[in-house]
Specification:
The chain has about 160 residues and is α/β, with parallel strands linked by helices. Helices cover about 40% and strands about 15% of the residues. It has a 6-stranded parallel sheet, sandwiched between helices. The longest helix is centred in the last third of the chain and has 17 residues, at about 140-155. It is globular, with a radius of gyration of 15 Å. The protein starts with a strand and ends with a helix.
Length: about 160
């Protein structure tokens, strides 16, 4: 299963709509957590919010995660060893108050298991590929600690 998650604080209809437009082309079913969005998916299962008690199980069952560039989701993907495709929200499109998610992905691109989609075509192409998970070496406690340390320092700087 492909899990699309937009977080719980802000809508991200652009991401949900993009995946919905090509969900029928994908070899795996899609579940989208759409949060406060107003777009209603037609080609994939969706839910407004996943209960916190169920979130880990849904995450564990997913083969790939598609998400806004939220740090919590990046860390959860790392914890479960799941490849994650990040689609940063853009202030110019009214999706956030600033472009900190663009800055975040610029620092995360190229890390094992992290893919950045700036366009719908990027996103579609990644979802049609077999993506690598974070490497075993990078999934170690040291690798996770390094990522967490970096992200915490980045968050306090922003």
């Amino acid at each position: 299963m492909i899990l699309v998650t937009v977080g719980t604080q802000l809508p991200f209809d652009r991401l949900v709509k993009a995946v919905d437009t090509f969900a029928n082309e994908l070899s795996k079913p899609v579940l989208a957590q759409i949060g406060k969005g107003t777009y209603t998916p037609q080609n994939m299962k969706w839910i407004k919010n996943i209960e916190p008690k169920d979130f880990d199980n849904v995450f564990r069952d997913a083969s790939v995660i598609v998400s806004h560039a939220g740090i919590g989701t990046v860390l959860t993907a790392k914890r479960f060893g799941k490849p994650i495709i990040l689609v940063p929200r853009q202030a110019a499109l009214g999706e956030h108050r600033n472009d900190h998610q663009l800055a975040t992905v610029s620092q995360l691109v190229g890390r094992p298991g992290i893919y950045v989609a700036h366009t719908d075509d990027d996103l579609r192409n990644y979802l049609l590929e077999e993506l690598d998970s974070p490497s075993h070496e990078d999934s170690s406690e040291a690798g996770r600690a390094s990522l967490v340390t970096y992200l915490k320092s980045y968050i306090t700087a922003v």
